[in-house]
Amino acid sequence: MGCAVEGEGDTVTARVLSDRPGEIIIESIEGDGGRLSLVASKNCVGIAAIETLKLLGQPSCGIALTLHKGLPLGSGMGSSAASAAAGAWAVNALFGEPLSKDALIVAGLAAEASVSGYHADNIAPALMGGFILIRSCSPLDIQRLPFPGDLWFVLVNPKFEAPTAQMRAVLPKEVPMSASIHNCAMGGSLVAGILQGDAALLGRALDSDLIVEPVRGPLIPGFADVKAAAKAAGAFGCTVSGAGPTCVAVVDDPQLGEAVAEAMSEAFVKYGKLEVNSARVAKLDQAGARLV
Amino acid sequence: MGCAVEGEGDTVTARVLSDRPGEIIIESIEGDGGRLSLVASKNCVGIAAIETLKLLGQPSCGIALTLHKGLPLGSGMGSSAASAAAGAWAVNALFGEPLSKDALIVAGLAAEASVSGYHADNIAPALMGGFILIRSCSPLDIQRLPFPGDLWFVLVNPKFEAPTAQMRAVLPKEVPMSASIHNCAMGGSLVAGILQGDAALLGRALDSDLIVEPVRGPLIPGFADVKAAAKAAGAFGCTVSGAGPTCVAVVDDPQLGEAVAEAMSEAFVKYGKLEVNSARVAKLDQAGARLV
Known about the structure:
- Chains A, B: InterPro entries: GHMP_kinase_C_dom, GHMP_kinase_C_sf, GHMP_kinase_N_dom, GHMP_knse_ATP-bd_CS, Homoserine_kinase, Ribosomal_Su5_D2-typ_SF, Ribsml_uS5_D2-typ_fold_subgr.
- The structure is a homodimer.
- By secondary structure, chain A is α+β, with helices and mostly antiparallel strands.
- Chain A folds into two domains: 144 residues, Ribosomal Protein S5, domain 2, CATH 3.30.230.10; 132 residues, GHMP kinase, C-terminal domain (Alpha-Beta Plaits, 2-Layer Sandwich).
- Helix content of chain A is 39%, strand content 22%.
- The longest helix of chain A is centred in the middle third of the chain and has 19 residues.
- The radius of gyration of chain A is 19 Å and the shape is globular.
């Protein structure tokens, strides 16, 4: 599962190319430091647009895209899914929104498969907003889980190039049965916390991962101290966001969130010897991809 | 997690022994075929009573118990937890119910530890009724999950002595990461199905276990056919109940449940070459342990 948060995000513009039927071109990308390819078939936003065009039944025009990255690459905040969601929604919007957001997930999945594997954890919430539980990717079986009440996330992104290959390689291929049972209980508790509007339970569930956090956390300088600082400052729980290095904590009050953000940032500086790119308190987003 | 169902259950009577302070004795056990020990410290009902007495602060009397087994032993329906819950509640009731049901879980846990390990999956719902999600056993962190609406389980118990040692030995010590992720999604979906009153989702989640069912199912003659028959007859999902050999299916209508029970029973006879002890359609129980 995954969720969307308000604030930073990617923006895509789409323009009809009447003389280039079926073609997707990327005209420009801003905010990526020149790291992303302008070749549509090699870029999340391009792939999502290509797949959306297929779903639309191959209209007799092409589409030119521009992408403005609002989310940093490789931050663990689902940057690629943000581009894919924006690309799919922009193309769909150009034709009057004939497809629903959940129908567009398959387009986003194709884009995600090219960068981080065939999973909907990021793309589904990026499109639909809120918490999305993915029971199965094929066939696609997803649930939008409403959180009754307000919820805030504290996202602290340190200036640290997370070693993506190592972050993936460190995941075990096999896990102890006891850890699997434990994490399954946490998965259930996460859902129970969300649906019952119990931010404290949600935090306890998020805070107690025995499989991924124990191997990825140590690769982020200062992580254990950041986690401890978040909880000492009043967060319900703290863990690695995605593959890191961003750390995320859960709070039910935005003012408390500011204090937690400060405590986490200080811990990154003091114990991780890392500068902090951004520290923000973001509300759970309910809208997902949208026309701006 | 686990849940309680209406119908069959164990019954305990408790009587004050004013001349034997602090002592628990078991006077008689019916319905166990002579298999259970009358020594209190070697029997679930006795251990639960002893632990409950400790929680009550060691009153200056002893207690005599009788146990009537309504649930068959080794059936995969939580027979030992039923005895433990009844024992704990009977002792507590004798003193005017000073302890709450969730306070008695620790007494039941001690009893369960002696037969099937330190887990609250059976004892918590046996005491409290409904669905109980156990995030953690120590410290105890449980959630009662209300199912909005009605829900029925089809429980078909074949005449088959499940090889308990083998049923346990067959569980892997390590599981593939992919299976762990999958089962975690099922755990979340199970909770989502319950809290949202979505019996179909609950069934899909229950039906798709990649860790336990694939190794335990084949030890129950005819299991694959029973599962297929349940679903062909309209059940939302079917799996092994506990360690088996009882199989459980989920339905949202009791009449449909009868048809599913018949289809499952026929499959046990035809493909498993097993007679059927009992086949019943049981409603989700909301009360748990109670005074009768």
